[in-house]
Design goal:
The structure holds two protein chains of two kinds. By secondary structure, chain A is α+β, with helices and mostly antiparallel strands. Helices cover about 25% and strands about 35% of the residues of chain A. Chain A has a nine-stranded mixed sheet.
Chain lengths: ~300, ~290
């Protein structure tokens, strides 16, 4: 059994994850990852069924074709049933992101679709939908020497009730498409590992210092593409702010069945009150990356 | 076992064939409004929508292979049908084809019908080249290739891939399919007589609207109005490589924009289907 630390959890796992940081703590595991038999389906009046996945409070089950089934229960256990000849890379990729997100939702934490760096002992988040450029942005800041917190997914929670909300890292890897690896010239300095065979997306180990503890959040930048040729950093209207952040909840499809809207609302309301939130709109493509990094740096160092 | 109720209506077309205009008109008719917001169309389901795919499947689409997405995508739209109370209109640019699992690329069991929007490939070549910011020669080559649009190979794409095929095979794949009813609407007829053509299309879709609603919808969605709206607020479906989505909207701009050899190449490649839909007569077939 392997011991890891990720998403602020002590994890014991029968499945090996070279992407996760190993854990030497003797504390009992908060979450166990085991091989075993998963339910074929969830039963009960509150079960919400979607496309090959179903959920109800405390339980999430997904059937990944040609790979296996993954069952996440009570935020404390992930059971993996791999089909004969099943694609373990796909299972692994799912567990590292969406299975942990389900466990976070079950614990009433808020997983957010954001990458993060450390600036002056606080976290600066780059949030956005898939393909918005979060990983490339964080990769560029890491190349510039900023400490890395998290890529693509981060968890926001209170360590104790009435504490301030902090961001906790998922695991120390940046997931980049081939074009971004080339753009950031990362293949010259670090090894790139394909996430799956025939998918040209790679896991890259951050070259800068890695933050492994919770940090309070100073800025949230919501990344967007737009049709103009200029980069704009704007404050969103207060009316739309909550909606903007709600849309950035990671694996929000899981929330409907698992519940947890109240806690999510409280977390996001805290962010709105305590952090500086900005919308960053920029033209599609990579040619403005240098200008984007300069503008963001100027903004968060204000 | 009971068959699912058929709620899906597919608005199929090769790109730049009037699909957006048609969806704007449909929105104006259904909402009975005198104006439409191009960035907030009621008819907004898209076969290539990455967000809806991820929301229903619970998977990261960027980590899936194209054939995996293809198979799951039919299940996504079956699910959409299952959870919807009313008819759902879905834009699709992919051709009709069978997947690796030998099933069609749309869920036939819950699909009611297809409205196929067709436009002359001569004008498409001009419009699509502008949309992609490609040379017309490159576009003409793609019109006759096994074109897969929005492929995510080594970089992120906002939309999921769609297998178009060549223009001729695209048209044939839909109109000659044996699985589902297809009615064809010519873009050129929409431009020439929108009341008559759009009115007939609504009949085919079993949507009953008054002449006044129809007239208002056509006025609200005139090319000039949609283009003016895009000038004020960029259209989200515009390719960032081009300066605008609503370019000219006219029929026959190829006569001005294409060289003789470029139009001859298109005609040579696609004359059979072009002839079938009245885009030129036999005597125009180049001798080659």
């Amino acid at each position: 059994v392997y011991s890891y630390r990720a998403y602020s959890l002590n994890i014991s796992s029968e499945f090996q994850f070279p992407e996760l940081s190993s854990n030497s703590s003797s504390a009992p595991a908060d979450l166990k990852i085991v091989f075993g038999t998963t339910p074929r389906e969830l039963v009960g009046p509150n079960v919400l069924r979607k496309v090959r996945n179903e959920s109800c409070p405390g339980k999430f089950l997904i059937h990944i074709k040609n790979a296996g089934r993954v069952y996440i229960s009570d935020g404390t256990k992930i059971t993996i049933e791999i089909f004969p000849g099943g694609d373990t890379e796909l299972i692994k990729s799912f567990i590292l992101t969406r299975a942990f997100a389900a466990a976070a939702h079950q614990r009433r934490w808020t997983p957010i679709h954001a990458s993060a760096i450390e600036v002056n002992n606080k976290a600066v988040l780059f949030a956005g939908d898939s393909g918005a450029g979060k990983s490339t942005t964080v990769g560029a800041f890491v190349q510039a020497g900023y400490s890395f917190i998290s890529d693509d997914i981060s968890v926001i929670k209170q360590a104790e009730k009435n504490d301030q909300y902090k961001i906790y890292p998922s695991y120390p890897q940046i997931r980049l498409w081939e074009d971004s690896v080339a753009l950031l010239r990362l293949s010259e300095s670090t090894e790139k590992k394909p996430i799956r065979k025939k998918v040209k997306k790679y896991g890259i180990n951050p070259t800068s210092n890695i933050i492994r503890t919770g940090l309070s959040i100073s800025n949230v930048y919501i990344l967007r593409w737009h049709q103009n040729d200029k980069i704009k950093i704007e404050s969103p209207s207060k009316v739309h702010l909550l909606q903007e952040l709600l849309s950035l909840t990671y694996a929000k499809n899981q929330l409907e069945g698992l519940g947890g809207h109240k806690e999510q609302f409280e977390t996001l309301s805290y962010l709105i009150k305590e952090c500086r939130i900005s919308i960053v709109s920029r033209p599609l493509g990579s040619k403005n990356l240098g200008a984007l990094i300069s503008l963001l740096e100027e903004d968060f160092l204000l | 076992m009971n068959s699912p109720v058929k709620k899906l209506v597919w608005l199929a077309s090769y790109p730049k064939s009037g699909n957006t205009w048609f969806r704007a008109l449909l929105t104006a008719v259904l909402e009975e409004k005198n104006s439409v917001d191009i960035n907030n169309l009621l008819i907004n389901h898209d076969y290539a929508d990455r967000a809806i795919f991820e929301y229903f499947t619970g998977l990261n689409s960027h980590e899936l292979k194209e054939d995996e997405i293809d198979e799951l995508r039919t299940e996504v739209f079956s699910y959409l049908s299952e959870v919807s109370e009313d008819v759902q209109f879905i834009k699709i640019h992919a051709g009709y084809h069978y997947l690796k699992n030998k099933k069609p690329n749309i869920p036939i069991d819950c699909s009611r019908q297809v409205l196929y929007l067709i436009r002359s490939p001569l004008d498409i070549a001009v419009s699509f080249a502008f949309h992609n910011n490609w040379s017309k020669d490159k576009m003409i080559k793609y019109l006759n290739s096994d074109y897969i649009m929005s492929r995510s190979i080594g970089f992120a794409t906002p939309k999921l891939h769609e297998q178009l095929g060549s223009w001729s095979s695209h048209v044939s794949s839909w109109i000659y399919n044996k699985d589902i009813r297809v009615d064809v609407v010519r873009y050129e007829d929409m431009v020439r007589d929108p009341m008559e053509t759009f009115g007939k299309a609504l009949d085919v879709l079993n949507l009953k609207v008054s002449d006044e609603v129809l007239r208002n919808a056509i006025a609200a969605c005139s090319f000039e109005k949609l283009r003016a709206q895009e000038t004020k607020s960029p259209f989200k479906e515009k390719n960032p490589a081009s300066s605008r989505f609503f370019r000219e909207g006219k029929v026959g701009s190829w006569k001005r924009e294409l060289t003789e050899s470029q139009s001859a190449r298109i005609i040579t490649d696609h004359w059979e289907i072009m002839q079938k839909f009245g885009y030129f007569s036999r005597e125009h077939i180049p001798k080659c």
